[in-house]
Amino acid sequence: MFADVVFVNGQVITVDSNNLIAEAVAVKRNRIEAVGTNEKIKRWIGESTKVIDLRGRTLLPGFIDSHLHLLGYGLTRLAINCKDASIQSNADIICELKRKAESIPGGGWIIAVGYNEMFMLEGRYLTRHELDEVSTVHPILIVRQCGHIMIANSKVLELAGVNDQSGDSEGGVFGRDKSGRLNGLLVEAAMDPVKRVMNPTEEVLARAAEIASRDFVSLGITTIHDAGGYEPVNLRILQHAVHSGRLKVRVYAMVVHEPNFIRMRETCLSTGFGDDRFRIGPAKIFIDGASTAPTLATRQPYETNPEDSGILYYTQENMNDALIAAHRDGYQITAHAQGDRAIEMLLNTFEEALRQYPRDNHRHRIEHAGLAMPDLIERMAKLGIVTVPNPNFFTEFGDIYIKHLGARSDYFYPIGACLKAGIVVAGASDSPVSNCNPLIGIHGAVNRLTPSGAVIGEEQKISVMEAIRLYTWNGAYASFEDDQKGSIELGKLADLIVLNDRILDVTIDGIDQLRVEMTMIDGEIVYELGKSPDANDALEETINFIM
Q1: Could you tell me which of 238, 252, 243 has the C-alpha nearest to residue 205?
Q2: Which residue range or ranges hold the Amidohydrolase domain (predicted)?
Q3: What is the band of 532 on the pLDDT scale with cuts at 50, 70, 90?
Q4: How far is CA 285 from CA 65, 108, 262, 288, 320, in A?
């Protein structure tokens, strides 16, 4: 009964109920067989046991990112990245678009992602007319960093059936110039017609999943809660990618948008169906907009515009109709809710759902739960809600929150107050909106520093151990899998990562400088620093959408 792999001489952060720090771990097949001192684990070492000397470094449970967009991330790795250091202006983006247009046949889509007009030298959005100067035979689309705004050229609008006479929809706005003509800006639900004509092939999507997986395991991510944003058929693509080995990470897949989870419910499948590699997650809707645009729905207007309180996709009645039925049929339910107005509406729905159909251990969630004021935190705690904030956002967007929300920004992602109230908080990146490195998220939760060096909500800071728990055990709890993973304990799945240093001993301002040296999933070492294939090898092609 010898182990297959033994880790010794480490700072083993178990994240168990006592936050035990051990020295060594034994792994047999895909399970943890023993945890303890070096001396205790010695007896598990046989002739064929692979012994890994940690040399004092940290061993952690695999990181769990509880909200990201897997295929969206993979597709962005095949697109022009506006976050590249070489892009500082709209003019730089135009140059990249022209270069791409010269290299692909007419009709091929050209996509740019990670765009933020506030970070461009011009300080404004690009327009449809500027994109038309690049090409009118290629569909050209720029996706804002938040994912809630796009800029399209005339070819994209033509394919989407949108023209100057098109009216705004519920929860969406078409940008217009002074003459009333479309300027290419598509806000929130106005993006829907474009999304419907963007149809990447299954092979492109599978390739995107593979690229994403390579990046994720290099960052120590062993499980992702996929926040979707696409048709149910793509759940099948993800499932196939997992079971074929192209996608190494475990997937807890949200079913997004009411029509999709109605169809899923008709098959009698709901949250929890699947296995430990791929499992159906919650039913999810979008209630409001983005935190950085900003289009999040707030109870009081933005500091920068007394006439603006954001965008809502749902009325209270419609949201109740959508989510209560899913709750009744056994789903965990959740919603994208960034502003306090949206969070309040979602809590109303949770309360009504549980009044009509009481259920213990529902673990209903709030994705983001951005502007969570004290009265809302109290209601969340009473209801047993899991919140899924994005502490990595502070390091990139924190100053935007201060600008638009003023003093209220102290309660943006109020992780400290939520933990004190007894709320389980699961950490997430919302990638590709922001960097998916969990160590940046841990750093953000501990330090809450903006790019300018300001602190958002000093009292909301948490300890390093609490932040580690956000990305491990709490993430497993959010998917009903805390009995299988999220901590290093006897019998749990062998999803483990090795850092290059001791995370509990480095200064807190250096957490984001740590890196992952090894990742193990299901007892298999799937990444070793310097030995794994470079994901960039797969990036020579451009997205080629088939209409």
Answers
A1: 238
A2: 50-527
A3: low
A4: 19, 31, 12, 9, 11
Please provide residue 542's backbone torsions phi and psi, each rounded to the nearest 5 degrees.
-100, 150
Residue 27's nearest CA partner among 77, 57, 62 is: 62
When pLDDT is cut at 50, 70 and 90, the band that residue 247 belongs to is very high
Mean pLDDT of 467-486: 98
Enumerate helices (H) and strands (E) in the chain, giving the number of each.
17, 23
What pLDDT is stored for residue 384 in this prediction? 98
Q: What is the pTM of this model?
A: 0.90
Distance between CA atoms of 337 and 346, rounded to whole angstroms?
A: 8
Beta strands 110-115 and 140-144 are parallel
Q: Which domains does the chain have, with CATH numbers?
A: 70-197 (3.10.310.70), 201-528 (3.20.20.140)
Of 124-138, 259-273, 301-315, 329-343, the one with minimum mean pLDDT is: 259-273
- Residues 202 and 5: their CA atoms lie apart, in Å, by 37
Type of residue found at 449? L
Would you place residue 538 in the very low, low, confident or very high pLDDT band (cuts 50, 70, 90)? very low
Sequence-distant (6+) residues with CB within 8 A of 99 are none
Q: CA 437 → CA 217, 426, 430, distances in Å?
A: 10, 15, 11
